[in-house]
Amino acid sequence: MNNGLLGKTREILGKVPLWAVLVAVFLLGFLLRGGGEKGQDHGAMQASAEAGQQQATVWTCAMHPHIRQPEPGKCPICGMTLIPVKDDGGDEKLGPRQIKLGATARELAELQTAPVERRRATHTIRMPGRVSYDETRVFHITAWAGGRIDRLYVDYTGMLVRKGQLVAELYSPELYSAQEELLQAIKGQEQFRNSSLGSIRRTAESTLKAARRKLELYGLTGEQIDAVVESGEPVTNLNIYAPIGGTVVEKNAMIGMYVNIGTSLYQISDLSTVWVELDAYESDLPWLKLGQEVSFTTPAFPGETFSGTISFIDPMLDPRSRTLDVRVVAANSDGRLKPEMLATAVVDSRVEFAGEPPLMIPATAPLITGKRAVVYVQTPGKQGVFEGRVIVLGPRAGDYYIVTDGLAEGEMVVTNGAFKIDAAVQIAARPSMMNPKGGKSGVGMNMAGMAGMDDGAMEEQEGAPMAEAAPEIDTAKLPEQFTDGLAALYSAYLVVQEALASDLYEQAVQGADSFAKALAQVKMSVLSPDQHMAWMGYEKSLKTAVEGISAAGDIASAREEFGRLSSIVAVVVKSFGGHGEQSLMLFHCPMAFDERGAEWLQNDSETRNPYYGSMMPGCMDRVDTLFTANGKGN
């Protein structure tokens, strides 16, 4: 029936002239628009909309902002519909590293700036260590002659000894024979004193001197030798005296023990002066020098501060801990500082520069990726225009960094909101901190958990503080079904962190498998479209990183993959918040992975570095609280 009707219609149209068909179509369109003035208003609105779309000559993907096309269509990566980005040609006057933000955008980004200024570089260094003996004041009391110990007057470790105090008696056949030789030499001298032959008299005198010298070498004092000469009888036991005063730190002598020449009987240390041996990181070296005043505290005397001076800085760096020994000499006349006491030292230092003070910027200004440092500088004379600039940093001085190249005095650098500016620069596919070459923007990672990132892009991100660039999501509106899954995911992550910090590779792999299962249980279906889109990107990157841990094969490779996983988890916490019954602290280790630096999360503030484990568990240069157990994040 329908085929017949279609055939009739074609037959009728075939007999009607073409111009008549066009007129009919025009009239039909006029009637459908409503005719008259209302139709004209609708047409004007449509034309305005079309004109607006013509201004949006650039089309991009919400998931992959580096995709920029001159016409609408589908994203070649994820297939999402491209959205228009208004392009009024204003950026044509800006440089490749510049971006312009309106007043509203600057207010939303909470931008703050500070001038680059010259100031004295002061810095406070904290170093852990322990109290030790002053090695220049450690002495051994030894046996100067072989024999048997018959009596001890100092018979326990820790005993205080005065200089010249009798410490032991030693019976020595060798010493007895030497005394007999002395007495015989005395008799020989008296016998040949009146001899007419000078050579005989001289021989007798030299024999007496040699016998007396032999006793001195056996350790007898002049008074002891004179006593033997006066009595005319050899002494069976040798008294041993302390050559210095101090504390007995080691006792080897026992009654009845036979000893040889040179056997150590006691070790005595003068504790009126002690050493405090501190561990300093190589980054602390610019701030340390010989003769510098150091204050330190010990747990034994809380609230009390001791002082000393740096006497030695080790020229060799420990390759395992990446630290070197700094030795402080401290007075200890009251003897309260004991060897092996723990100590924490504080050094208030400053770097001296020839001429004027160095250029410095607040520590919050630079965006540090581990390879580069980028700041955003307010362009003079151009309202709201900011320029990204790569700079060279010197050592950190408290809340400031020394700048050795890239900035001039008086320039205004962004100290708060730089990450938000960088995100806007990435959306515009311009050179940024995350993507120094521009074009392929790293904001796809920030906005969607590094979705689709290739190995090269991943390498570029290593060491970057990515948690700061997380998109803002109203965590209060997240469904409970979803947040419960996040809490389980965070708990599984902490299991992996603890295993690597304890050098337990097998447990780390098991934890990674648990993380993968927890990730699969996160209910993303309950999220809103925007939340769902953001989580999709995170999920893919989390899955890739945790699978890398499971397939690592050794703990070193597992730690590499854990570094990637930690960066993504930190961004997730920043975006979706922390949930559950445990706090989340974000740590940063500057020396991990050949000083590229890496982050990780813990549920407390006691540093347990998963990248070094037991070799260097305390390596950390900063820690931030992302989420506290009461549900408030930072």
Structure notes:
The chain has 634 residues and is of the alpha+beta class. The chain folds into six domains: 1-54; 56-88, no CATH class; 96-121 and 355-436, conserved putative lor/sdh protein from methanococcus maripaludis s2 fold, CATH 2.40.420; 124-134 and 271-350, Efflux pump adaptor protein, beta barrel domain (Elongation Factor Tu (Ef-tu), domain 3); 135-269, RNA polymerase II/Efflux pump adaptor protein, barrel-sandwich hybrid domain (OB fold (Dihydrolipoamide Acetyltransferase, E2P)), CATH 2.40.50; 466-627, Up-down Bundle (Four Helix Bundle (Hemerythrin (Met), subunit A)). The protein has 15 helices and 29 strands. Strands 4, 6, 21, 22, 23, 24 and 25 form a seven-stranded antiparallel beta sheet that branches. A hairpin with a 6-residue loop joins strand 23 (373-378) and strand 24 (385-397). The radius of gyration is 42 Å and the shape is elongated. Residues 1-56, 88-92 and 440-470 have low confidence and may be disordered.
Count of the separate structural domains: 6
Q: Within the CATH hierarchy, at the fold level, what is the topology of the largest domain?
A: Four Helix Bundle (Hemerythrin (Met), subunit A)
Count the E strands. Answer: 29
Shape: elongated
CATH architecture of the largest domain: Up-down Bundle
What Rg, in angstroms, do the CA atoms define? 42 Å
* C-alpha end-to-end distance: 72 Å
Helix content: 25-40%
Tally of individual helices: 15
